[in-house]
Structure formats: C-alpha cells, structure tokens
C-alpha cells in the first residue's frame, strides 16, 4: 500500500497542522494581529518603548531625550503598524537564533534602532532593571485587551445587530489598524504553525487540510478498486493493470500535491461539502482518463463518514510510526544511554522531599525508561479502527442495490486491506472507542514524561546536574548569570497542553446524539495539535538531556551529609540477629534533630551487645554501599 513520503513543506493554509491556520484561516486571520508570533513581538516592542519613555519622566539622565518631541515620535514609530512589519519581526527572530532568548532579542533589536537614530548614549536604558516576564506579562494582557475589542465587534456584528448600526456607533472610535495578512510562520495563530513550525512540519503529512484531502482520495480510490472485485460491471476496469496503476497514481506523493489539493478546495467553494468535493475531483480525473462510464461508482452507496472515519484513522495510524520514532530517538534512547552511563553512581533518594535510603542515579532514570517502554507496549495494543457501513451503519444502500453480496464481509476485507479494523456495529459515525483508547495511551506517555521533566527540574535545582553553557545564549533578560532548565520546563508545558486536548478528545468523541451529530467533525480536525505538542516536548527533552552534566561532587557531598540514611540498614541487620527493639534503638539515635555523622554511628555500633563480626559488618555499611540490587536489564 503506497504511503506518503515525508518531505519538508512550506506553511500554507493547506499544510498548516492547526485548522485555525488551515481550513479556517480566512475566518480567523484578523486575530493574527493579536495572537501570532509577529504580534507578540510587536507588543513586546511597544511595552519596551513605552517603558523607556516612562523612565524618561523620572531618570534625570533621560529627560533631554523626551524633551525632543521628534525623538518620541521617531521612537514610537517602531511599533506602529505602518513601520513594524513581518520583515522587522523576522529581524528579531534572526537575533533570537543567537540569543536563544526571545525577549532579549527584542532588546537587541531596539538597541540597533537606537544606534541607527544616533541615540547610543541611551541604549542601556532599554529593558532597564526588568525581567522577561515584566515584558511578557504586560504585552500579552495588552494584546488580549485589544483583541477583546475585535471579539466584541465580531459578536455584535454576527449575532446581535446589523453591521451598519455598529459602524455608526463606533464610527469615531480609534483602534489598531488591521490589514489582511498572508499566512506565514510569523502570522500563524497557532504556535504549532508559527514559532514551532520547523519542529512540527513533518506532521503536516498526516494532520493538515492537505493530508486529510489526500487520505480521503486514497480511501475513495481503494474503495472503488475493491468494488471492482464484486460488481460485475467494474471487473473489466481492474482487469487492465494500467487502469489500476493510473488510478492509484492520483494519491501518490509524486502526483498529489498542494495544487491538486487546492483544486479540491476550489470545488468545495461550490459544493460547500468537503467530501463531495473529493468525489467531484475524482470524477474529473476519471473523465480525463476516458473512464466516464465508471464515474458514478465513485463514492457508491457511501456516506461522508465512511470516508472520514477510514481516512482519519489511517492517517493517525501512519502518524504513530513517526510518533514512536520521535519518542524513541529523542527521549527513550538518550535516556537509556544516560541511565546505563550512571547506572552505579550512588545518590541520595528523597521521599516526601526528605533524605531517604540511597539509590543510584542510573536506576532512577531506568524507572522512566521502564515506564515508557511499558506504556509504549500498551499503545501498541490499541486497535486502529474504521467505521465503514453506509448512512446508518448497516449497508442499506449497498444491500438494496446488490442484495446477493455479503456487504459486511466486503467491508471487513476492504478495511483490513488498509491495515485497519472495521467496527461491526455503528451509527453513521465511528464509535471512536479505539481512538479514545489511543488518546488515553498517548496521554499516559505524556504523564510519565511530565513526571520525568519535574524530576529533572528538581535535580538541576539541587545541583545534581549542571547544564552545558552556550556562550551566545541568554538565560534571563535581567540576570546575566542564569542558566535555566528551560528545555524541561518547555517540555512540561507542551505535555500539559497535549494532555488537556487528549482528555477532551477521548471523552468527547465517543459521545454523539442518536445516530450522529456534527460535533465530531470539527473536533477531529484538531487531533494533530496534541500530537504536535507532544513532538515539541520530545524535542525539548532531547535538548535538555543533551545539556545535562552530572555533578558527582555535589551528589557525593549530599550522601556524606546524610549518613543518617544508613539507619534502615543497621536496624535491618540487627533484626536479623534478633537484637531487642532495633528499630526503636535507631529511632532514639536519629530522631533527635541533631546532625548524625559517621562518628555517631561508630559510637552506636561500639555500644551494641553483638559479636565483633557483626559490628564489623555494620561498620562497612555506608551511604555509598547501601544501594541494593537491580534486575537484569
């Protein structure tokens, strides 16, 4: 079965992963002025500029700058919609490639502007004494506040009253000029298609409007060819191998491109029905190839959801191959390598945040390797199922046309030939139970990775790990010394976003009124978004794991400072020797609030009424030796 090769794509409304930037871009483009990467940069510039001008009112060295009105006008021009365009936003992004810090890049962009205008002596007052979040937590609420004007306008215009009345009401109300934008990685509303496009672009082969159209074409074609095996009037078509090759070419990656997907979209403008547009697109292809007499067998006796509920599970199944490869390459593989590298390095464990029985650094990483491997196995056990049975699930139209054909058997064979399982009893749409199970399994993997990200964050905070330093990067826009664990924080954020959507998808999709409602349709268009957020998290974790360097002296010192943890080992040996009340004896020694040292235990052991051999055995117990055993792995 041919499948889509993965080649880099440019971002267009057809290749965008989020339907906001894809199918619905023309309806949502005005929001790019508030929520795109471009708009965030512009609002950051605005806040930095206005903050600088506010400083001019209180800092003596700056008063001469503001006294010149031309200076103020020229400075404010930088964030005006007439001046600040996508090219200038791209300049900030180019700077960010060096700093690896988005707000610092804005600061440097502004400093360049100051230099161009001969304001060099004022440049160090830009971002003076601020942190990044002073800018972000002002810029984002400001953009949200401005966006609310548009939100209310849209609500009023579309629902409450006529546009003319509103136009007269707001005739003299100044507001941000909004000009139509082309979709780019800077103007995309979803960060999946914007800031993170280069990291998520491979998923466009499965979850974009383009890919959905292509998979629909694939299913329609393979269904037609399957019909050729049971419908007498079609057998001569399939008998000609050239016909089959030419027909399958239409969904091949060499033939089916963005331009042909756009042809389907153009047809949809007339039909206002996406699957019917695919049918007409195929009929045109049949006409071009002289197959006019077969054209009415395209989409024969089917409903749209026979196509959608086969095409989408098929694209999801194909995407899982890439998902598992990314998970293995970015997370499981590197994590296992580090676990084996540090397998025997003793480390203080902490339960409830308090010092506990020693463990090994490598073993703690193996915990996550093991959990991920188990979760991946569970993911592999989930069926990829399709609904294929006509308008309400029992092949009514098929059976009335050809009552002697066993259509359920036909459906089973056709769907299994695509590598899917056919749901036996359905309404017009899929039951979505298997898809819900898939999302639950993906959510479980992410939950494990959230746990891992938080642990790594804690270990870095405890200085068990240091992070490699990149000279050109910036950790904080205010504190030059900072090297933040941003990769693990970004991973946690993206995993949380993904899990929120997985939870919604797994609880929403299996619910539909009676034989169907349309709520599944728009919901399904978003299934690529949590997978894309998961991909971003995997890549962040890979970067984070690549930066960490174990700080053995710190780990060793923590063990030396917490000799108290060998109390469990000593009381256990004493229990073995039938020593009276060993737990209570160790409790009396250790729960005093005083620091316990090796000497404390030496005195304790020397005072025990046991043989010298047992005392020597106890003296050999240290936080470095009391590390247990591991299973074969």
Question: What can you see in these coordinates?
Answer:
By secondary structure, the protein is mainly α. 59% of the residues lie in helices and 4% in strands. It has helices spanning 25-28, 32-35, 37-55, 63-67, 69-77, 86-99, 102-116, 132-160, 163-169, 197-200, 204-207, 209-227, 235-239, 241-249, 258-271, 274-288, 304-341, 361-380, 396-401, 407-417, 433-461, 486-508, 519-524, 528-547, 552-560, 567-576, 582-590, 598-606, 612-619, and strands spanning 346-351, 354-360, 385-386, 421-422, 465-467, 548-550. The radius of gyration is 32 Å and the shape is flat. It starts with 24 loop residues before the first helix and ends in a 14-residue tail after the last helix. The mean pLDDT is 92.
Distance between the termini: 37 Å
Q: Any idea what the shape is?
A: flat
Work out the strand percent. under 5%
By DSSP, the count of extended strands is 6
Q: For the largest beta sheet, what order do the strands appear in spatially? A: 1-2
Major β-sheet annotation: 2 strands, antiparallel
